[in-house]
Amino acid sequence: MILFFYFLFAYCTGNILFGFIISKFLANKDIRKEGSRNAGARNAGRLYGKKAFIFTFFGDALKGAFIVYLGRLLGYSTSILLLGLLFACAGHIKPIFFQWKGGKGISSFIGGMITIQPIFIFIILAAFLLFYLIYRSFTVPGLLSLAACCVSFLFLEESLASFFIATMLMAMIVLSHNIPLRHFIQKKSNDN
Q1: What is the pLDDT of residue 63?
Q2: 108 lies in a domain?
Q3: The predicted structure's pLDDT at residue 73
Q4: Considering its fold, how many domains does the chain have in total?
Q5: Taking a C-beta distance cutoff of 8 angstroms, is the pair 112, 68 a contact?
Q6: What whole-number distance in Å separates Cα of residue 65 and Cα of residue 86?
Q7: 99 in any annotated domain
Q8: What's 6-26 look like in SS3?
Q9: 145 lies in a domain?
Q10: So what's the pLDDT on residue 83?
């Protein structure tokens, strides 16, 4: 029963859209109706500047970190922590309190993963730099660097369950971007 409420709380926490809050505070507008219509940090930065990007990114990252930290306090395994993070990211991507229109879940994913294993900071940065040299864009290398975290579970945790759940989480985030498969195969000279 406690586990059910943990997952429900994780989803509801994901519904807190910092991009929406920042856009209301800075411009009294709904970020989901502006720019790319995405409630994430990248759109916030494009529309309202660097401070909006920073506050949105860290706000959304803290959601993921908080859910993982709470699960750890409750004594849950890494697999359950990842499921909690999956629900938090699902709440961010498809928030019931915001008519199912949210962000892409990347910031929350990063915050949660780093809380699970701080070494993911270096894995994400190193993988991003490597893939950026190949693709010369931000979106695909960013997603591939997060995918590197999933593979890392096979070595850091030696857990197929953690790897499988992390891969499901990653697949959800990739699907939220609506990027054709060919973009992962072809080198791109600019971003989508």
Answers
A1: 97
A2: yes
A3: 97
A4: 1
A5: yes
A6: 12
A7: yes
A8: HHHHHHHHHCCCHHHHHHHHH
A9: yes
A10: 97
Residue among 47, 42, 41, 31 at smallest CA distance from 98: 31
User: Which of 100, 95, 91, 25 lies closest to 56 in space, CA to CA?
Assistant: 25
Q: State the pLDDT at residue 179.
A: 64
182: tokens are 């060919």
Name the CA dihedral angle for 162, 164, 170, 175, rounded to a multiple of 10 degrees. -160
Q: Which domain holds residue 89?
A: 2-185
User: Hey, what amino acid is at 135?
Assistant: Y
Single pTM value for the model:
0.89
Give pLDDT, residue 112.
96
Report CA torsion sign: 5, 40, 52, 139: positive
Q: How far apart are CA 85 and CA 148, in angstroms?
A: 17
Torsion angle in degrees (nearest 10) through CA of 97, 98, 100, 106: -100
Per-residue pLDDT, 190: 43
Name residues of the chain where pLDDT drops below 50: 189-192
Q: Is residue 185 within 8 Å of 135, Cβ to Cβ? A: no
Confirm whether 192 is domain-assigned: no
| Tokens 């294993």, located at residue | 117
| Per-residue pLDDT, 150 | 87
Element (H, E) at 89: helix 78-93
Q: Report the C-alpha gap between 29 and 22 in whole angstroms.
A: 9
Cβ-based neighbours of 180, under 8 Å, separated by 6 or more: none
**Integer Cα distance of 76 and 63 in angstroms:** 18
